[in-house]
Design brief:
Blueprint (H helix, E strand, L loop, with lengths): L31 E5 L6 E5 L12 E5 L1 E3 L3 E6 L5 E11 L2 E7 L9 E5 L5 E11 L5 E6 L8 H4 L19 H4 L7 E4 L11 H9 L3 E7 L22 E5 L1 H13 L3 E4 L1 H13 L7 E5 L14 E5 L6 H10 L6 H14 L10 E4 L1
Parallel strand pairs: 1-17, 3-12, 3-14, 4-11, 14-16
Antiparallel strand pairs: 1-2, 5-6, 5-8, 6-7, 7-10, 8-9, 9-10, 12-13, 13-15, 16-17
Length: about 375
C-alpha cells in the first residue's frame, strides 16, 4: 500500500458497544495489558501490573503530567432561565476562556449567563459571551470572581468523554480522582492522557527499583483528541493544536539514555507527540522546548525518538489510532493492518476499550 492509498477508512473497525468501558477497574494496575511485539506480530495477554517485566535497566519512561480541569460548568441564561452547559477549552487571558456551549445555536454575542454550583444554586459568578469563532467555539468573560480557575473545584465537573454516557457525579466512583493520573500536577487538559491512568505509586516505585528512570513532559489535551478524521485523504486533515512543554531535566535524561543505549518508552500518544514534535524540529535531536504543536503522525512515519509505547485502545478513524498504527511499523504503511489485527484479538478476548479501558504495550 503506497502513501497515496493510506486513507481514513483504513483505520475503521466495529466495536461492540458493551466493550466501551464506563467505569475504571477497581485497582488501576489490574487492568489488562495486551503486549504486541512489532517485529513478529506476537501477542501476549497480561495485566498492567506486569509492565516492569518488559522494561530494562537503563530505559527511560516518559509520562505526561498534565492534569484535567474540572472544565464542565452549568449555567442559566439571564433572559429566560434556560440551562446551558459550558465546556472550558483554553484560557485566553485572566477570566477569559474559549469554550463550547450546549445548546449554543441561539446564543449570540453579549448574551449573559449565571453559573450554578453543584447543588444547582446560583454561584454568584456571571458569564458574558463575547463572540463566536468560525469553528463554533465561544469566547467567554467571567465576572464576580478574581479567577474562574480558582472556582472550578467548587463549581465544575470532570469532563468525561462523550462515549462515557453518564454524568460524572452519578457513578459509584470518584471521577475527580480516577480520571486523573496519580502524577498529574500541571493543570490544563480537558481530557486525561489516559494511558497513564493505569499507573499506581507502587508500580512506579517498582519500575524505578528496576533501574528505569522516569521523567515527565507536559501536553495539555484538547477536545480535538476525540474528533474523528472526516477527510477521506489523511493529507487533507487539519490537526488540532495543543500546548506542550519539554523541560531541561527531561531533555538531559533523554540524551543520557540514548548515549547509554537505553530505550525511550513513551506513555501515551500525548507523550509521543511532544517527543516527536521536538525531535522533528531538531533533526532527530532533543532540547528543552515549549509551545504549541499540530504534529499529525500517521503511516508511514520515521520515528526519531520513541522506541516503545504504552497506550490505550483508541476510537475508530481517530488520529490516535493512526499514530499507534504508524508506531507499529515505522517508515511503513502496514502498521494499520497490524494494529487492527491486534484490536480484533482484543475484541475476541473482551478487552475494555477507550479512556477507562485496558492498555497495550507495543515493543
Amino acid at each position: 500500500m503506497s502513501l497515496a492509498n493510506v486513507r481514513t477508512s483504513d483505520f475503521d473497525f466495529e466495536l461492540p458497544p458493551e466493550l466501551i468501558a464506563q467505569i475504571p477497574v477497581e485497582d488501576r494496575d489490574q487492568s489488562r495489558l495486551l503486549v504486541l511485539e512489532r517485529s513478529t506480530g506476537r501477542i501476549q495477554h497480561r495485566r498492567f501490573a506486569d509492565l516492569p517485566e518488559f522494561l530494562r535497566p537503563g530505559d527511560l519512561l516518559i509520562l505526561n503530567n498534565s492534569r484535567v480541569l474540572r472544565a464542565r460548568l452549568w449555567a442559566t441564561k439571564d433572559s429566560g432561565g434556560a440551562e446551558v452547559e459550558i465546556l472550558l477549552l483554553e484560557e485566553s487571558e485572566a477570566n477569559v476562556w474559549w469554550a463550547l456551549l450546549r445548546p449554543g445555536k441561539r446564543i449570540r454575542a453579549r448574551t449573559q449567563l449565571s453559573l450554578k454550583d453543584t447543588t444547582q444554586s446560583s454561584a454568584g459568578v456571571g458569564v458574558e459571551v463575547l463572540r463566536k469563532s468560525a469553528e463554533g467555539q465561544y469566547l467567554l468573560k467571567f465576572s464576580g470572581t478574581r479567577d474562574i480557575t480558582e472556582e472550578l473545584d467548587r463549581l465544575g465537573e470532570i469532563p468525561l468523554p462523550p462515549y462515557i454516557t453518564r454524568r460524572s457525579h452519578t457513578a459509584p466512583i470518584n471521577d475527580a480522582e480516577r480520571y486523573q493520573t496519580v502524577y498529574a500536577d500541571r493543570l490544563g487538559s480537558v481530557a486525561a492522557p489516559t494511558a497513564g491512568l493505569h499507573f499506581t505509586d507502587r508500580l512506579l516505585s517498582q519500575i524505578r527499583a528496576k533501574g528505569v528512570a522516569i521523567r515527565h513532559v507536559t501536553l495539555h489535551v484538547g477536545l480535538g483528541t476525540f474528533a474523528p478524521v472526516k477527510a477521506e485523504s489523511l493529507e487533507n486533515h487539519i490537526m488540532h493544536e495543543e500546548r506542550f512543554e519539554l523541560s531541561l531535566e527531561t531533555a538531559e535524561a533523554i540524551r543520557k539514555t540514548r548515549r547509554a543505549g537505553g530505550r525511550i518508552v513513551a506513555v501515551g500518544t500525548t507523550s509521543v507527540r511532544v517527543l516527536e514534535a521536538v525531535a522533528a524540529s531538531l533533526a532527530g535531536n532533543i532540547a528543552p522546548a515549549a509551545g504549541r504543536t499540530r504534529i499529525f503522525i500517521y503511516p508511514p512515519y520515521p520515528f526519531r525518538m520513541v522506541e516503545a509505547l504504552v497506550t490505550n485502545f483508541h476510537l475508530p478513524r481517530s488520529t490516535l489510532l493512526m499514530l499507534v498504527s504508524a508506531f507499529a511499523a515505522p517508515n511503513e504503511t502496514r502498521g494499520g493492518e497490524l494494529i487492527l489485527s491486534a484490536y480484533a484479538e482484543a475484541i475476541r478476548e473482551r478487552y475494555r476499550f477507550f479512556s477507562y479501558g485496558d492498555a497495550m504495550l507495543i515493543l
